[in-house]
Amino acid sequence: MRDLRVAGDGEWIGFSRGLFPDLAERLDRALGENARRDGALADDALAGDTVQPGRAFDDRLDAEVARRHELREAITALADISDPAVRARFEDAFATARSIFAPIGCAVPEPESFLAAGIDLRSLATAAARDTTLAVVVAPHGLGAAAWLSLFDGAARDDASAGRPGLVLADEVRAGFDALDRPPRAAPAASVRDRLHPSAVWTLRLIPASDAPPLMGLGHAHGPHATLSEMLVLQLRRADAGCGPLDAETFTWVAGELAGGALAAREVFDESERAVRISARGVGSQGPHLGARPPVG
């Protein structure tokens, strides 16, 4: 069978019209009648020539076929996860990401994009099955501080996400935000064509999502750590689901360093301001309420 992913324009058009024969026939007839009425194709009609449909119609059919093909590939990618409960967690992660980033028009890559980038989906699924506290997190990196502030602070303008908290960034975090907005070096990253956010790259990892970090009392050197984007996605997911926030009584270290390596960022939920607060502390700081959420993937 001919692989339509490498088919030429003519084959796409023929296949598209084959999918919707009744619609194609009706449009052909309508276009022919309109053309004859206008007299534009009177000579062709008298000569018995067939009136061809508009190119725009064929383009729309092509776009619909391409969309269905992409959807089928996405379903196939997650279908490799044999455990239905685990597969549902991955499906929910992608659906939730689309909902979270829709207000800023940010497109989310499909699962097959991560497979193409080299992610080991089966290993992630196995780890997720072993530990239900690991959340499947689809997160963008490179959005910039303004986009994240809009998703939190600007959410009150969106009825669907009116329960979201605010986001407070310390001065050191604002100044060095780019250092915290990078994808992890060792993790495969996927991208998607996005006119509004062309520099965004996405990761798919498992992040411990218990109320408090699983590892406590450690300095920043005892990583690895979840990225700032991953922690913010987790907080938005909890808020949109009507659940309590992470780190209501604890702090979580964030990947990346500030001020030439002297400082690192930490995340906490500030109940007094009902906001997720990102502040900075010395990389050697330790304490019973400061911990890490080591990612998997």
TrEMBL record:
<protein>
    <submittedName>
        <fullName>Uncharacterized protein</fullName>
    </submittedName>
</protein>
